[in-house]
Amino acid sequence: MSKKLSLDKKYIKVLLLEGIHPSAVNSFKNAGYSNIEYLKTALDGEKLEQKLKDVHMLGIRSRTQLTPQVLKKAKKLFAVGCFSIGTNQVELMAGKQMGIPVFNAPFSNTRSVAELVVAEIIMLMREVPSKNAAAHRGDWLKKVGNSFEVRGKNLGIVGYGHIGSQVSILAEALGMNVLYFDIEKKLSLGKALPCESLSELLGKSDVVTLHVPETPDTQKMISSQQLALMKKGSLLINASRGSVVDYNSLAEFLNSGHLAGAAADVFPKEPASNTEEFNSPLQQFDNVILTPHIGGSTQEAQENIGLEVSEKLIRYSDNGSTVGAVNFPQVSIQPNRDKQRFLHIHQNMPGLLKDINFVFTNKGINIAAQYLQTDADIGYVIIDAECTNCEKILKELKAIPHTIRARILY
Ligand SMILES: NC(=O)c1ccc[n+]([C@@H]2O[C@H](COP(=O)([O-])OP(=O)(O)OC[C@H]3O[C@@H](n4cnc5c(N)ncnc54)[C@H](O)[C@@H]3O)[C@@H](O)[C@H]2O)c1
Ligand SMILES: O=C(O)CC[C@@H](O)C(=O)O
Known about the structure:
This protein is an alpha/beta fold. It has 3 domains: 1-104 and 299-328, NAD(P)-binding Rossmann-like Domain (Rossmann fold), CATH 3.40.50; 110-290, Rossmann fold (3-Layer(aba) Sandwich), CATH 3.40.50; 329-409, Alpha-Beta Plaits. 31% of the residues lie in helices and 19% in strands. The protein has 13 helices and 16 strands. The protein has helices at residues 22-30, 45-51, 68-73, 92-97, 110-125, 128-136, 162-173, 198-204, 224-229, 247-255, 299-319, 352-361, 390-399, and strands spanning 14-16, 36-38, 57-60, 79-82, 102-103, 154-158, 177-181, 193-194, 207-210, 234-238, 259-264, 288-290, 340-347, 366-374, 378-386, 403-408. It has a 7-stranded parallel beta sheet with strand order 8-7-6-9-10-11-12, with helices on both faces. Strands 2-1-3-4-5 form a 5-stranded parallel beta sheet. Strands 14-15-13-16 form a 4-stranded antiparallel beta sheet, covered by helices on one side. Strand 14 and strand 15 (378-386) form a beta hairpin. Helix 1 runs parallel beside helix 11 and helix 5 (110-125) crosses helix 7 (162-173). The protein is elongated, with a radius of gyration of 25 Å. Bound molecules: nicotinamide-adenine-dinucleotide and (2R)-2-hydroxypentanedioic acid. (2R)-2-hydroxypentanedioic acid is lined by residues 61-62, 84-86, 109, 293, 296. Keywords: NAD, Oxidoreductase. Pathway: Amino-acid biosynthesis; L-serine biosynthesis; L-serine from 3-phospho-D-glycerate: step 1/3.
């Protein structure tokens, strides 16, 4: 066995923000990490930058914004875990250019979101939100009004990914006709039918539900123009991201009665903690369900996310594996404790691997195994070598032009 070279786990600082499920803390502890700080809230600005100064691994949910400026100041940060599906809160390209892989949990809360959406479809179709609000004020609204069964109604799903497709199955079990629109070709589940365009879907649906990621293309993808295409008396549900819908326009269409109701779980500006005030132009409407970004907030989902993301961070920290990273070349690798393991992250330039190998071959050091993956921007190589002068080797690896980061793992 080699002598111990890497940073001892007790010195690897893990910071978990935003009340991540305690399953993550247990998972780090079980893997030998003891330097863990756990906060219930998000941090921003100066407070976040100060806190990150000595942090090696950071866990966040959807509220902590990791901008290039914040990342640049976090000199020791070597990995980020988003304990969520969305990763739009992190500047992924900046992270990559700084050699920081970002991991997430792409599946663990999808069922929870789908269940909430199905519940909201039924509640909105039965006008429960406005009847409930009236009852709280002492008014008794016992009338059929515009209450309908969901059976036989058209549900339009925008974004037929992990969540959209589960909503599709559940809604079809309730007797709804499912239509969907996705920019990618998707396998239709059950009897669901694809639409050629967003406009086609909007014009045909009694309820529209949004399940797209936040991207430049999805910014305000539902605004006045699209709302005007929706059927009179139809419903809109947004549990994707706040930036996807122009809520001022939605408020106008609710005001005019063109839309019969809506549900929103996500907002362009969400409070950083439960003590901050929440404001939205939708607050004036009894026929709108407002929830505080809790689509994925169930015990089942949060426990699974805690385990899934912490395990990805631990595998990267322990072995160098980047499987599941959303901004990094993926290297799947097992530990090889009989050798010394080096990680080298560099800008993807021709000839760099030759320079890296020269550091070893020039000293007659045997490279036992090498794993390289690249993307258009960076290269990530793991080298298992048999060396005695590892610190010197590391120094030379760091000195290679276009190196972003180099470390000895063990
Ligand atoms: N409310 C919550 O608590 C909560 C929880 C989980 C996820 N989310 C949000 O839901 C989003 C979707 O989650 P998912 O797991 O289904 O993601 P996914 O990646 O599995 O599916 C997203 C789908 O949207 C499609 N898409 C992308 N851009 C599109 C466009 N312009 N028009 C039409 N389709 C487009 C993609 O091709 C993909 O099929 C996440 O990105 C996240 O922002 C919210
Ligand atoms: O946990 C949260 O803050 C919500 C995360 C959710 O929107 C997701 O993208 O998974």
